Amino acid sequence: MKLTRRIFIMATGISAGSLMVGCAGMSAAPLHSALVPRKAKPSSPAVGDWVASTCQGCTQWCAIQIFVQGGRATRVRGNPLSKTNHGYVCPRGHMIPQQMYDPDRIKVPMKRTNPLKGRGIDPKFVPISWDEALNTVADKMMALRAAGETHKLMYMRGRYSPTSTELLYGTLPKIFGTGNYFSHSAICAEAEKMGPGLTQGFFGYRDYDLANTNCLVAWGCDPLASNRMVPNTMNRFPDIVKRGTVIAVDPRLSNIAAKAHEWLPISPGTDGALAGAIAHVLLTEGLWSREFVGDFKDGKNLFVAGKTVDEAAFVEKETHGLVKWWNLELKDHTPAWGEKESLIPAAQIVRVARAMGKAAPKVTVWMGPGAAMHPRGTYSAMAVHALNGLLGSIDAEGGVWQSGSVPLAKFPKLDKYVDEQAKTASKGKKLDGRGAKDMPAMMGAKPGSGVVTNNVANGMLKDPGAVKVFISSWSNFAFSATGAQRWEKALAAVPFFVHMVPNASEMTMFADIVLPSTFNSAEGWSIVTNMGNGHAYASIQQGAVKRLWDVKQEETEVMWLLAEKLKARGFANLFDYYANEFKDPETGKAPTTALEFSEIATKMTSAPLWMAKEPLKGDAPINGWADFKKKGMFSGPRYTLKKGWGGKFNTPTKKFEFYSESLKNGLLEHAKKYETTVDDILTVSGYTARGELAFVPHYETVKRHGNLADFPLTFIDYKSRLNREGRSQNTPWYQEFKKVDPGDVSWGDVVKMNPVDGAKLGLKNGDNVTITSVTGTISCQLKLWEGVRPGTVAKCYGQGHWAYGRVAAKDFVKVIPRGGNNNEILVDDYDRLSGATARNGGFTGVRIQKV
Ligand SMILES: Nc1nc2c(c(=O)[nH]1)N[C@H]1C(S)=C(S)[C@@H](COP(=O)(O)OP(=O)(O)OC[C@H]3O[C@@H](n4cnc5c(=O)[nH]c(N)nc54)[C@H](O)[C@@H]3O)O[C@H]1N2
Ligand SMILES: Nc1nc2c(c(=O)[nH]1)N[C@H]1C(S)=C(S)[C@@H](COP(=O)(O)OP(=O)(O)OC[C@H]3O[C@@H](n4cnc5c(=O)[nH]c(N)nc54)[C@H](O)[C@@H]3O)O[C@H]1N2
Ligand code: SF4
Ligand SMILES: [Mo]
Q: What are φ and ψ of residue 817, in 5° steps?
């Protein structure tokens, strides 16, 4: 037989397939299973079952079904019952089998035998039993109890299950006794929540009525490829384009920008200026919503550029502080001024504002992290979201909605299992520095209440003795957090670190004990909740497939087993809580094994859905646990419009606040704590506003790291359409299809630069380059591309893994990354009002040099 290329590829594909079923051996070459040709039509119908579960490839948490054949997952689709994804997954849902059957998965617990820690230092992991692993962890924890140092246990979660996280994140720190437990949410999108939070009292992600909207404004997000509700957006998008206007505000030509009627390639970080100029047009041209905002007493529009307005002349309806906002911020912010700041032509600002005004209230300003996750992001998030208030689209048909929920049960109270030592220890100061004078972290408008995830590394570096035992799950901060090098240093100094993950990542390379986790979307148990397309829902995760390796679910099974070990050493409270309080809601039976505990906890959470005495509002009744497992999800009724209207917003005035009383109260409280003024707090926290301006949505200039002479280009970052957050880069499909990201190439990593800049710098397509900022240097290739304006360069987040496996890294053994990790050049800075980590808004200056 002649060895054609096609047959050769098939042959390598077959050996790849056999590796995937569990061989631990590391082959040198990547597995190109994505390239195995498939037959167009199967010769016989596939035999198997569609098993319901939930994808956690992004924060939409889609209800899905997995096609299981002989215990193996072979395909994924949306749950046909889903009112949110319409039975479809986005491209990342299809990657589930490849991520789960990654031959580089951790197959057994391991311990480190090399005490030295650092990038490129072989941990010399050796396999151990679960028993030995958990004995070691329990011994280390008991030593903390004995020394009265339980607060030196730190737990950090990355992604998690919204329900079973209560059994670890919500339980272990309280019962064992530490205040040092942190969520990853501040490296996620917390600053975005400040927009709706400080105006309408809703600190959450919004839902958008895409079925009815006539104007979709994707502002700092790319919902055809990332953000939330991707399957719903893909479904609704063609009709919106036909019947209305699509506007994209993004410095780069994103997927949605490429298909939009209007692309506004904004100068990074100037969103507050553009939003202000749009608001100025809406007001001066009389395009605001009379129904939501109200009107002038005598009906005559007094919003004239440059002129203040008497507050008494305007009667507001559902809002508060419109005239204050105009007088303090908007009156001089004409389209011409907006153009100067944002580089968007004044004529386009006017055109877009009119299109939005014409469609109101059926307009959705979909504000994403691009407008918010930067050092002054709270204010631009407020400015962009406030447009929804002006247009009256809040809670309106075709507009922007708050979330709903479906009834779930809470886990039993744990108070009586918290002893005195734990109670005292958990009250200590938290390592993330929240609530410090220069870190108000005002999530929920309460100072000191928000997590400052990325600052934990700084806390650890400042006080090397603070953490003696560090446990973390579903996280990879040495890759995913800006200023990633700090995490490498901080992790190298931790005496004992336990990582609970299915794949060994950068962070795992610093672990003393590695506990192999289930891949939750198909091997674990929990209930996941979310909303989208007007429906809140709960969706199951169940052990849909046969586990191929000796893995356990970290939030449930591992906790049960660890609790047993602690009990055997004289600390019984954790185990007693799990064993005494958890009972199967059907049979009343208490769990006796880790796996039973996991399933019983899932049943307990979801019981109100399938054991409901009265029929629930929403989907048809579910008859028992077996029926729920089969259906896999429950959706509540359609969103009730005008939820916050009529004085029901969760703000001090009960109105939609253009003048944020909640922000004012929070800032005053924080200033009082430090016996100083609000202006002083704003100064030390890096904001430019002084006086009353601090309480209204407004524009703050870009806070830029790196002077223009040494770092002349502005760097922006965004997600790959194929990123399952930081977790899919070891799949061949990710690498093979990487070119789906506009401007990108397969199997590589490129920084995109406008050809005008390329010519100036003498750089060509395909050049190997370094990108340098004040924090570090990374390497990748150059791509000349007109999708970014001169002066700005764009690079996708995702590549640059130096660990994670043979596909993700260019050379795993030699510790050579495939491209560069953006987080090694992005500066560790914060939107200090929320505590969120900056990654957008062009706050990092770079220079690019040919190597
Ligand atoms: N530059 C830049 N940085 C970013 C972003 C960006 O856009 N640009 N995005 C940010 C955002 S929005 C987020 S949310 C964070 C995410 O960042 P992190 O919270 O750190 O999460 P990931 O990097 O996605 O998690 C990777 C780890 O999860 C493990 N894992 C995968 N599946 C499972 C599972 O089922 N169970 C368990 N226990 N572990 C699992 C993998 O083995 C891996 O070690 O990154 C942030 N970092
Ligand atoms: N494909 C994919 N989708 C995901 C995820 C994923 O990993 N992959 N993760 C999920 C998670 S955890 C989260 S938190 C969400 C959020 O994720 P996204 O909504 O995707 O947010 P970012 O990744 O921060 O993307 C920022 C966007 O803003 C643009 N941008 C950068 N700077 C500026 C600026 O100054 N102004 C404006 N207007 N735009 C700017 C970028 O080009 C990019 O389009 O996505 C979820 N969806
Ligand atoms: S990656 Fe996100 S949008 Fe895509 S299928 Fe999974 S949960 Fe849904
Ligand atoms: Mo996120």
A: -75, 155
Look at residue 393 in the predicted model and tell me its pLDDT: 98
Task: Give the max Cα distance, the chain.
Answer: 90
58: Cβ below 6 Å to ligand 2? yes
CA of 249 to the centre of ligand 2 (A): 12
For atom 44 of ligand 1, the residue with the nearest CA is 505
Q: Is 632 in the pocket of ligand 2 (CB under 6 A)?
A: no
Q: Do residues 742 and 254 make contact, with C-beta atoms less than 8 angstroms apart?
A: yes
Identify each DSSP E strand in 95-220 by its residue range.
Answer: 110-112, 125-127, 153-157, 181-182, 207-208, 215-219
Question: What φ, ψ does residue 781 adopt, rounded to 5°?
Answer: -105, 160
Q: Which atom of ligand 3 is nearest to the CA of 724?
A: 1
Rounded CA-CA distance 317/292 in Å is 6
635 touches 536 (CB < 8 A):
yes
Give the residue, by CA position, lying nearest to ligand 3 atom 2: 58
pLDDT confidence of residue 381: 98
Counting Cα atoms < 13 Å in the Cβ hemisphere of 336 gives 4
Q: Two tokens at 848?
A: 């690019």
Given strand 513-516, what is the order of strands in its sheet? Answer: 125-127, 110-112, 513-516, 496-501, 469-473, 153-157, 181-182
| Mean pLDDT, contiguous 10-residue spans, the chain (851 residues) | 36 34 38 52 81 97 98 97 97 97 98 97 98 98 98 98 97 98 98 98 98 98 97 98 98 98 98 98 98 97 98 98 98 98 98 98 98 98 98 98 95 98 94 98 97 98 97 98 98 98 97 98 97 98 96 98 98 98 98 98 98 95 97 97 97 98 98 98 98 98 98 98 97 97 97 98 98 98 97 98 96 96 98 98 98 96
As a whole number of Å, the end-to-end CA separation of the chain is 45
Q: In what helix (H) or strand (E) does residue 52 lie, and over which residues does it extend? A: strand 49-54
Q: Of all atoms in ligand 2, which is nearest to the CA of residue 270?
A: 35
Q: Cα(159) to centroid of ligand 4, in Å? A: 8
Question: 732 CB contacts (<8 Å, ≥6 apart)?
Answer: 30, 31, 32, 33, 34, 35, 98, 807
Is any atom of ligand 2 closer than 6 Å to the C-beta of 393?
no
With residue 377 as reference, give the H or E element that holds it.
helix 377-390
Q: What is the pLDDT of residue 9?
A: 33
Q: Which of 192, 228, 501 to mutate to test the pocket of ligand 1 (most atoms within 8 A of CB)?
A: 501
The pLDDT value recorded for residue 46 is: 87
Residues with CB under 5 Å of ion ligand 4 are: 188
Ligand 4 centroid to 14 CA: how many Å?
36
Q: Ligand 3, residue 231: give the atom nearest the CA.
A: 3
CB 228 near ligand 3, within 6 Å? no
Is the shortest distance between the CB of 445 and ligand 3 below 6 Å?
A: no
Q: What DSSP state is assigned to residue 411?
A: P
For 281, the token pair is 């047009």
Which ligand has the minimum distance to the alpha carbon of residue 60? Answer: 3
pLDDT of residue 40: 57
Helices (H), 438-525: 455-462, 477-480, 484-492, 520-523
- Ligand 3 centroid–CA 93 distance in Å is 5
Q: Find out whether the beta carbon of 231 lies less than 6 Å from any atom of ligand 3.
A: yes
- For residue 369, the ligand closest to its alpha carbon is 2
Report the C-alpha gap between 688 and 680 in whole angstroms: 11
Query: Could you say which ligand is closest to the alpha carbon of residue 482?
Result: 1
Cβ–Cβ under 8 Å, residues 97 and 75 = yes
Reduced to 3 states, what is the DSSP secondary structure of residue 739? helix
Residue 569 Cα to ligand 2 middle (Å)? 46
- Give the containing element (helix H, strand E) for 296: strand 294-296
Whole-number Å distance, alpha carbon 4 to ligand 1 midpoint, is: 40
Structural domains in the chain, CATH included, are 207-401+677-695 (3.40.228.10), 713-826 (2.40.40.20)
pLDDT value, residue 8:
32
DSSP 105: B
